Amino acid sequence: MEHNPTKIPSPLLSLVPILVLVTLLFVTIRIFGSDALSGGSQIVLLTATAICCLIAMTYSKVRWKVLELAMINNITGVATALIILLIIGALSGSWMISGVVPTLIYYGMQIIHPSFFLASTCIICAVVSVMTGSSWTTIATIGIALLGIGQAQGFSDGWIAGAIISGAYFGDKISPLSDTTILASSVTDTPLFKHIRYMMITTVPSMLITLVIFTVAGLSHEATATDQIEQYSIALNNTFHITPWLLIVPVVTGILIAKRVPSIITLFISAALAGMFALIFQPHLLLEISGLPVGNIQSNFKGLLMTFYGSTSIKTGNPELITREQYESWVKQSIRPEQYAEMVAANGEFPGNYMTTADGRLGVARLQFGNVVLLPQNAAGSGKNAFQIVHGTNAAPPHTYIASYLWTQYGFKADALIHFGTHGSLEFTPHKQVALSGKDWPDRLVGALPHFYIYSIGNVGEGIIAKRRAYAGLQSYLTPPFLESNVRGIYRELNEAIRNYNNLQGEENPSASALDKASLQVKALTVRLGIHRDLEMDSILSQPYTADEVARIESFAEELASEKITGQLYTMGVPYEKARIESSVYAMTTDPLAYSLLALDKLRGKAPKDIEKHRSLFTERYLNPAREQVGRLLADPSSGTGELVCRLAGISRDELHQARAIAGSHTDPDQLMAMMRQAAEQPQAGSGKGMKEHMKKMMNRKAYSKEEKHQAMAILEIERAIRNVENYRKALLESPGKELSSLMNALNGGYTLPSAGGDPIANPNTLPTGRNLYAINAEATPSEAAWEKGIRLANRTIELYRQRHHDSIPRKVSYTLWSGEFIETEGATIAQVLYMLGVEPVRDAFGRVSDLRLIPSRELERPRIDVVVQTSGQLRDLAASRLFLISRAVEMAAAAKDDAFENQVTAGSIETERLLIEKGISPKDAREMSTYRVFGGMNGNYGTGITGMVEAGDRWDNEKELADTYLNNMGAYYGSEKDWETFRQFAFEAALSRTDAVVQPRQSNTWGALSLDHVYEFMGGMNLAVRKVTGKDPDAYLSDYRNRNNVRMQEVKEAIGVESRTTIFNPNYIREKMKGESSSAGTFTEIIRNTYGWNVMKPKAVDPQMWNEIYEVYVKDKYQLNLKEYFSRQNPAALQEITAVMMETARKGMWKASEQQLKDIAALHTELVNSYAPACSQFVCDNARLRDFIASRTEARAAAQYQEKISQVRESIAGNTRGMVMKKEEMTSSGEMKTNRLSNTLVAILVAGAAGLLIFIIRRKRHQP
Known about the structure:
The protein is α/β, with parallel strands linked by helices. Helices cover 60% and strands 7% of the residues.
């Protein structure tokens, strides 16, 4: 009685353990993700079991001994299965590493025809399963080999696995050796073979149907190209020692199966035999698996054990190996003798010391798919400064870089070349910047190949250099989608307090005490949220903020709420999600509509007072209604009519037509040219009458006032927004398809339509994508619109500086010129430079700026402010004439004599001359250099060369070293044609004297000060150099052009605060990026690494609390987003980098982290390195001081393993300079080779002896009575 329950539980009570199990599993998986298998799910199962036992003991009165015995019996019943599973794991690894599976794949690919592969696989597995009586054994042995053969022939894993499992289970069910078949016949008291006959009645028809399906699937399968299968075979042969002797292992396994040896014994002997063959035939793979530097008995033993118990992976490759004769024949066809001499001087004779084999051949890494080949772009130089290698070095490219391009032309004989941006290194290889010749590397490496470059519409500046220096036709693709930050809820309480303050202030006679109380409430919330640090405001809670300070906080909070952020990374050819298409349309149309309605109200005197000062009022009155209107247009596109435009703008139909006429009559070069062409095409009848009439028409055009033009522009902006809501939605939906069709059309020799560049919010004309990006006519810059923006922003810079410095103006302002901003704004930053100097452009009849005019001092109403300009390489190449224009403007301003105010340009030139003489420069040269103001990269370089040094924290101890490097690297003069690219010692340093402010352009919604490393590189580098020269930290401002209707200046610290709060600290942004894969995970790394860069270049720009927040979000998972699991799954290297950057920031003293924080970060970092191997970036591997700092903050055992992992990778790289990728193993002496062979033989004998002993014991036991 004690073995049976006295009372059977009801169905409802029986459901209790199941419900508990399901609920706890759901919660556990929700919290732990895939880590639930590490222990959480087991606890859940034990909990559910405990509840079952509780019900059995309390309700059914079953004794504990009975339950315990049942558990023991169940465990005993599955013990065999568990042992089989364990041995199958060892078998899978040993068969792979020994070369058994690769050998079966190698020969199988030559025997099994792809059309009948799936059906053959099913039949083979069925036969083997009948012979073995075990589907598990079949799948674990022959199934693995068939999976590899199928993959090589181009079948998906799902189809192959289906064929393997179908055959294995069919054979298992009809095998007289199968445990399940025998059990089923005995339970039903049916003779075994009678049971099998009955089973065949149901299984054979299903098997036949299965074979028909697999046959049809195989016949309809597009077989992998023969050359691809051949390459697969070569790759196997290069990695493994393929030999028929390895087939002994499956043959012996088959014999043991036929002899009906028990599965456990069969599998064990098979695994042990495979291990022995691994020692004999694949010692180089065991060395690779062991991670040890030298092959010996220790490496073989460690590698073999790791093969049996752990997860192993082997690097395989099939590079194109180029001989000296091939290389030299290609070089003779493409490379000039002087270029080849330059290359040999930089890299040595062929094959150099990178990507080479022991027999002197050179490898070209590639993946070939028939007539399509993918090549990774090799490093264009050598050294640790990866940033500079990509952005241009002075030295000729190495042999392997050149060989990949020459092989493409002459070895592969490609019909076209496609580069995937943004961006590669080809366009940054040395020599001329414009008008390339046969002596320039890009010209020689591309040759006559049609060349296409896939480029983001958001990066037209760098795209143009690919056209100019690599002869590329651009094919544009979309940026990531846009959405609002959705952080308004985080700052809701603050917004309510600000609204309360504004309401009190708006009363006719506000109470001073009530205002103070409301202001203190705003202040308390501002301090609690840390916003006061972003805005550099005080935190004394007893002293209320002023009205202007509350307004600044209000603007900051509103900017956070309405900030545009990028969503999941875009995949070319794949449309955005529907919600992201709509959010992008909102971003493209809401602001233009809102600001245009405001502009009309201003012109009519209807705009609320101080509306620009109070962002929340603008949001309430204009932004929210505009957003609602866009929503209605998305729901009903047909409502976007002229009638709606008139109603929203408050105008009549006639006024709309007049606005169009005013805009159309605006004089511009294109219209003038069109009218002249039209006149030229008229029949002249000998009198010139047609030309006179057209000239008269041009002269008699009606002139409109500035107010009329502004009103017309605002009305047309409203019309564009209203009418294009559906057009933008359609363009975003169709662009992915157009990108692919345009590329195919280009490859077929078709014409690619042109397109402007820029992100679609700043410039919707970039849509649809799949077009060839173009730049602008540099001679027409700054345009009239850019000039107006430049005046506004220059005045705003002076105003901001005055607010911070007791009403004094800046003496000198530094500007960075970038090609992307120059193209998209038509030279607005150059306009700022000119207006600061008090100089304006003079246009000719065709709109070209070919001359300058001094603005009279009385008209300017302020002193002329000195400038210093640093140019990017792209802008330098694109607009050299504008750099000359700036130099002329400086000379004109310095020579101005009629000024009513102190001329800061003159004072700056005098100071520069004095400093140069003090440095030992002759008075004559000092006078000439005193007006040098335009500088850029040395030797035509495109980057500053500072980023790699900044990230190598153990290479510098103080910022002076960085500043000196920056001053040297960016000290070439580009202000005149005569002295182009000359480096004059101390010229750049002297020019930076008296600099009070640094200005950087920002024109794209796709990046910010934190998300783009070039910002801290250029702006931060200039800031650092100025601090070194002047001894004070300059003000730093961004010229924000992202909203074409509301350009503005913003302090960089404030911009960093906005970006960090809306991106890396914003759970909505993090979730959006987590939809992506490895590259999306990398975006977090880039932002945090750039935060470190700002900490180095301008420490005041980074709130120290930021690092505490990074710790909370990415180490402690503040928002419970399972970030560790996400990074581990998608990109462990990204989280390794994040934690390494955090530790380096603390090590350098830039973050005062607590000891517990350091221990937590170090523990996470070492765990990632030990689990996934180190991703050897500058931070993770190449900083010895940082490695020691991390090891000192973690547990000793983990620290030792961590140091060993790093050392193994570094030693393997340092000791493998000849091959790095394809070199297998080279013995340094015959003695080592002999020792290795002896070790292999010894271990093989030991394994064989153990296997023989086991067989002997088994046979002896069978013969015992």
